[in-house]
Amino acid sequence: MHPRLQERAAVLADMRARTFMATTEFYEKIGRPAPPQGPRFQAVAKGKAWHVIEISTGLTKGFCFSHRAAMRFVDAMEAGVASKRGALQ
Fold this sequence. Notes:
Structural class: alpha+beta
Oligomer: single chain
Distance between the termini: 27 Å
């Protein structure tokens, strides 16, 4: 990846982490539980394949040829995101 793109991605990841921390801090101040974050990936049937799409960007992250395999892939992607979110906290 080009160094400027890597730098931009790092800046955006830092901003995303700060946003998450600010939201958590806000909810702690008012004494309410923070709302759960929604799913990040979705399986969509397209022809004979199931595309696993990142909801926020609309980009296809992978595809499978059965619904069950697509759902396992979605679960694995969500678990990977959850482990990264836990590392940020």
